[in-house]
Design goal:
Length: about 375
């Protein structure tokens, strides 16, 4: 849940306490930079040292920095530079929980067919949380002061990571031979980024997630436009959250004949096209039921993108690099979303939610184009023996 609540929570808190969309975007963007730098490093640690030794210290450090950042934002006398440094530290120490969970599927479910369905369930959970997280923010803002969402986020981060590390799955380790391979050269160079096809997957998911981050904050602007306050944001997010859950279950429950790489183009293009329709429906003159219906249909295309991307990573990367590979995928998704939050904050400071949504559509359609151009490369790599 903190992956979903933290970027938007930062935007809303800075906007409320400092009355500046641009500062909110800067703080969130710096957090994204820290996340992009830190997560792959910790992902290598997952492969080499096991999950608990990486997750517990990072989670406690990040939670402490988030509490300090929350307090600093709420005190107007604290300079903006301090907020930037604390946000950078929180991003650098954010625990790689999502890549750890996805890597654990290999140990818990060795059967490939069942594991692919497990990835679908994982994607539904993650993508539903990405759109349901703002619902929690809305509830917390309704019952307490603006600092409450980030305080709750910090507590969930530390408590949830501790609970995860106590489960049986994370205690399972790779076979000794795979651990030895993971240790060779793991601390140097670009690591899994040199794997054929992986840079294209990360580029596609980063571009898609920038669009998703733009969508998140754009909906806050839409809520202000529609209801006079972002506190009613949950009304809009309920529609897109429902669509995301339904879309993920429908997609993950089918046995597809086409390859994941081809379906990624289709689902990405569908997401981009619906964002274009959403931008057209965001005007104040559009009936609310029509807007909610458009949000629901847009949500249908969210989870399938992550499911297809996870399958691609599974096909392109050997098992002893899976922790690092999933960390890079997580970085592309979460950092892209946070960057999208930052860009949307800057757009909303000077323009409209409709322009921000149109920018989101452009980012997602660009992702679809990159995925289309990468088809031959992905096909050739997936055909190689493991």
């Amino acid at each position: 849940m903190p992956i979903a609540t933290l970027p938007l929570g930062l935007v809303l808190l800075v906007r409320d306490q400092r009355d500046a969309w641009d500062l909110a975007g800067l703080v969130t963007g710096v957090f994204a930079v820290g996340l992009a730098v830190g997560t792959p490093w910790w992902g290598r640690g997952l492969d080499r040292h096991g999950q608990a030794r990486v997750l517990l210290p990072t989670a406690t450090t990040c939670a402490a920095l988030l509490l300090a950042l929350t307090a600093a934002i709420a005190v107007p006398a604290v300079p903006a530079a301090v907020l930037v440094l604390l946000a950078l530290g929180a991003g650098l120490t954010f625990p790689p929980l999502s890549p750890a969970m996805r890597t654990t599927w290999r140990a818990v479910v060795p059967d490939e067919r069942l594991r692919r369905r497990g990835y679908a369930l994982d994607a539904v959970a993650v993508e539903t949380i990405f759109v349901a997280g703002p619902l929690l923010l809305t509830l917390l803002l309704a019952v307490g002061p603006p600092v409450v969402p980030l305080v709750v986020t910090a507590l969930m981060l530390a408590g949830g990571t501790l609970a995860y590390c106590r489960c049986e799955g994370p205690r399972r380790r790779l076979p000794p031979a795979a651990r030895a391979e993971a240790s060779v050269g793991a601390g140097a160079g670009l690591g899994v980024l040199r794997a054929a096809g992986i840079p294209a997957v990360l580029t596609v998911m980063a571009a898609m997630s920038i669009g998703f981050g733009l969508l998140d904050v754009s909906m806050a602007g839409m809520a202000e436009q529609r209801f006079g306050s972002a506190d009613q944001l949950g009304v809009l997010f309920a529609a897109i959250a429902g669509g995301s859950a339904v879309g993920g279950l429908l997609y993950g429950g089918r046995s597809w004949r086409s390859a994941d790489r081809a379906r990624l183009v289709a689902t990405m293009a569908g997401f981009g096209a619906l964002l274009v329709a959403l931008a057209a429906s965001a005007g104040s003159g559009v009936p609310l039921p029509l807007l909610l219906a458009t949000l629901f249909v847009t949500g249908l295309f969210i989870s399938p993108n992550l499911i297809a991307a996870q399958h691609l990573v599974d096909d392109l990367v050997p098992v002893h690099r899976m922790g690092e590979a999933q960390a890079w995928l997580s970085t592309a998704i979460t950092a892209g979303a946070a960057i999208g939050n930052a860009v949307a904050g800057a757009v909303l400071e000077h323009r409209t939610a409709q322009l921000s949504l149109a920018t989101a559509a452009g980012a997602v359609l660009t992702a679809a184009l990159v995925a289309l151009l990468a088809q031959r490369r992905w096909r050739s790599v997936a055909a190689l023996p493991a």
